[in-house]
Design a protein that fits this description.
It is a single chain. This protein is an alpha/beta fold and 234 residues long. Helix content is 44%, strand content 10%. It has a five-stranded parallel sheet, sandwiched between helices. Helix 1 crosses helix 5. The longest helix is centred in the C-terminal third of the chain and has 13 residues. It is globular and about 60 Å long. The N terminus is likely disordered.
Length: 234
């Protein structure tokens, strides 16, 4: 699903296009919600990366994530070129493709409870969407891996809309991509980052903060029930 960089315009692929006329939408964050960053108690992906290549993966924080990452995550720069520069600076020889494969594979550990509940809500007729800060290459990887697990009906990724989720502009653009313009609080959004939850709520979505030790299932279920009985925003 490669899209033109830093663009929320132009035609959508069949994979990205929302299906039918929706009245309620469950929008799920990926990292920290659908995916477990602690990988079921094994720790973050950087641990496995360091063990596989014999390096300190934490050094990517300064050479990639603190420098070029905002441009990468908003689609202004390919992850491959930014990572290539970081690997050269660090003197690591594993290569871009090998590094990305390890990163993506090791970081893809689903949260079983979230997947199970999302699948159950989908079976009851609630459309599912992914709303996440993702660059295009990892976005494709995630969609391919989630396809057998969840019926994802639409996506809004920062790499496609050109801004990240704590930017108010994200949500107007996301609604257009998801076919959810005017749904307002009938979009139920689950995210683990408080600033994203606050920004989405100010936009008008029903935004719920996810934490594993909270009763998030009850909150989402109540919000979906209320959303199904609420009129769309004019």
């Amino acid at each position: 699903m490669r899209r033109a960089q830093n663009s929320d315009a132009g035609p959508l692929s069949d994979e990205e296009r929302p299906q039918g006329n929706i009245r309620t939408l469950l929008a799920l964050d990926v990292d920290g919600v659908i995916l477990d960053p602690q990988r079921g108690g094994r720790g973050r992906w950087q641990i496995a990366f360091g063990e596989r290549f014999g390096v300190d993966a934490g050094r990517l924080d300064d050479t990639l994530f603190a420098t070029a990452w905002l441009d990468v995550i908003t689609g202004k720069r390919p992850v491959e070129s930014a990572l290539h520069e970081a690997l050269q600076e660090l003197g690591w020889g594993m290569g871009v493709d090998a590094a990305l494969q390890c990163w993506f594979e090791e970081d893809f550990v689903t949260a079983p409870a979230v997947v199970a509940w999302a699948a159950a809500w989908s079976q009851r007729g609630i459309p599912l969407a992914l709303v996440s800060n993702q660059e295009p290459r990892r976005a494709r990887f995630i969609l391919d891996r989630l396809a057998p697990l969840l019926p994802i009906g639409g996506v809004a990724f920062s790499g496609d809309v050109g801004v990240v989720k704590n930017d108010p502009a994200f949500y107007d653009r996301a609604e257009r991509r998801l076919g959810a313009v005017g749904l307002g609080r009938s979009v139920v959004f689950l995210d683990d980052t408080p600033s994203n939850v606050e920004t989405a709520a100010r936009h008008g979505w029903t935004a719920i903060h996810f934490a594993k030790d909270k009763d998030w299932q009850r909150e989402v279920a109540a919000a979906l029930q209320q959303a199904r009985g609420s009129p769309a925003r004019s």
